[in-house]
Amino acid sequence: MLTCLPFTGGSIPLRLAENSLVHEDIVAFIQEQLKILPLEHLTYSTGPRGSFRLRPALGHYFEEEFHPLLPVTPGDLFVTPGLTSAIDSVVFSICNPGDGILVPVPFYNGFKIDITHRSDAQLVGVTYDELEGYSSLDDLFNQGMTKKALDNALKRARAQGIKPRAVLISKTYPVETIKEFIGFCNENDLHFISDEDICQVCLGNPVLTSDFVSALAIDWMKLIAPTRFHVLYSASKDFCANGLRIGVVYSQNKGLFRSMSSIGAFSWTPHLVQDIWAAMLENKEWRIELHKKNTSLMAENYGIITRFMQKRRIPYYEMYVIFSGKKKAL
């Protein structure tokens, strides 16, 4: 959401990934639903892995909205205090100090904190602009160019004495490009991590031809071992609630979850907050209307800023977040 302020020179920051367009709707819902349950909210309750209410609710939500080829069970989910914590916990569990995580460039500026600060891992940028045949940012979504970029990044990291442990993606890629990422991880004994924090946004951008496709909806089991396939999600973007600090890791790697549990006392989402998100997920009618309203308002605001750019002949790259409801197994 843009706030008009007097411009006195300098820069206009657009990097903060927050959306307050439907905050009033969310506040009203939380106030209506909020009820303190002493035995669940004022005790240690079910521990750091996630409540018995939220994980089943998330499983149903994933199956409705992400269309996974395999059932998503509560045992496949680990609740974290936000997506930052999800990335940090996974990286901390799979990396030794100095190991690397490959991330396609450009990436969310917060990844450097998520990956490096506690785990002492290194963020290795997967760059495209130096590749032969590179023409524009569109090449970031091309399967062939992605293969070249990943190979180059892996060689560069190893030449610097860095041992890569995973590839982290966070963009809306075509199916074949997602498969390329997964296959590359399998070939090089790396973990595949898909940040899918934005699933429900559909702005109706006529420039784009690709829908959002979750890695869960791809036949990934034929491409990589289940112990090295992980998907991350949170309430921050689709539910416009960064401040709730709640996210989730999907994985079938029980060793990973044991490792995350061992440090879970340091990053434990309150069960009261878990119940708030569970209530949002369980109320299908409400969340569908919320997502529709959010989509409409985001499209309106996207139009404001792009028309501003066009009028002043300022070049920009079209948004690449789209979800049109065409959900199918691939």
- Broad shape: globular
**CATH homologous superfamily placement:** Type I PLP-dependent aspartate aminotransferase-like (Major domain)
Determine the mean pLDDT. 89
**Would you identify the regions where 5 or more consecutive residues have pLDDT less than 50?**
322-330
CATH architecture level-2 label:
3-Layer(aba) Sandwich
Residues in helix, %: 25-40%
Radius of gyration: 20 Å
Helix count from the secondary structure assignment: 10
Name the strands of the widest sheet in spatial order.
1-7-6-5-4-2-3
Secondary-structure element sequence? HHHEHEHEHEHEEEHHH
CATH topology: Aspartate Aminotransferase, domain 2
Distance between the termini: 34 Å
* Biggest β-sheet strands, sense, barrel: 7 strands, mixed
What's the CATH C level?
Answer: Alpha Beta
Q: Structurally, how many domains make up the residues?
A: 1
Oligomer: single chain
- The total beta strand count reads 7
Account of the protein in words:
A seven-stranded mixed sheet has the order 1-7-6-5-4-2-3, sandwiched between helices. The two termini are 34 Å apart. It has one domain (42-285): Type I PLP-dependent aspartate aminotransferase-like (Major domain) (Aspartate Aminotransferase, domain 2, 3-Layer(aba) Sandwich), CATH 3.40.640.10. It contains ten helices and seven strands. 38% of the residues lie in helices and 11% in strands. By secondary structure, it is α/β, with parallel strands linked by helices. It has helices at residues 23-33, 38-41, 54-65, 83-94, 111-116, 143-159, 175-187, 254-262, 271-282, 284-311; strands at residues 77-80, 100-104, 122-126, 164-169, 191-195, 229-234, 247-251.
